[in-house]
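Quarterly update, task 2.4: NSP-bound model.
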Amino acid sequence: MAESYSSRLWESISDIYSAILAHPFITGLTDGTLPEQSFAFYVMQDALYLREYARALAAVASRAPTASAMRMFASHAAEAIAAELELHTTLLGELGISKEDAARAEPAPTNLAYTSYLLATVRGGSYAEGVGVVLPCYWIYSEVGKELLRLGSPDARYRRWIATYGAEEYGQVVAEVIAELDRVSLGLSAEENASVRRHFRTTSRYEWMFWQMGYAQESWPL
Ligand SMILES: Cc1ncc(CN)c(N)n1
């Protein structure tokens, strides 16, 4: 049987995925060496990221060609993100970060660059490009979550984070989006196919960069 569009897309980022699994943020979640401050910084930035990501999903929903795809992306914008934000609120409390401190945080350079790229693509590109650009956020976390679930963690907070993304329910959500990309891929021109692949690779790179941003507690130089 011919390999699916999505399988080939995943293979095209195998170098990035390997680099993600080897990143000290990720290895530190399972061996417990990730500094708490790096994790707290990441969680705070991710809460900001998810607000913009929800906007991106709502934009993809508004351009979906079928009612079922529109419902899927709209419900992810509302519900999947709400579940993740709830996890962040709990984690921030456990990390001793007040709501006021969290509200004062501004997006770090990588966060702003990633969300700006997402929003520009979903607003200016085709529906297929929109699906391709939002997919790494779903897919990479699900794969990382499953991998880390196998390895475990000595830290209860890190275990909770891992359990969210390694969960079967999260995997099912991701599988629906992958299936939608495979459906949409059937009607792509060569040019549009190249754009989808480019966007998918770019946001996969941003996923690596987002962990690096958290690890280094990246700040604006000026
Ligand atoms: C940056 C980022 N990428 C992906 C996810 C998982 N939805 C997330 N919470 N944050």
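Highlight for this quarter: The mean pLDDT is 95.
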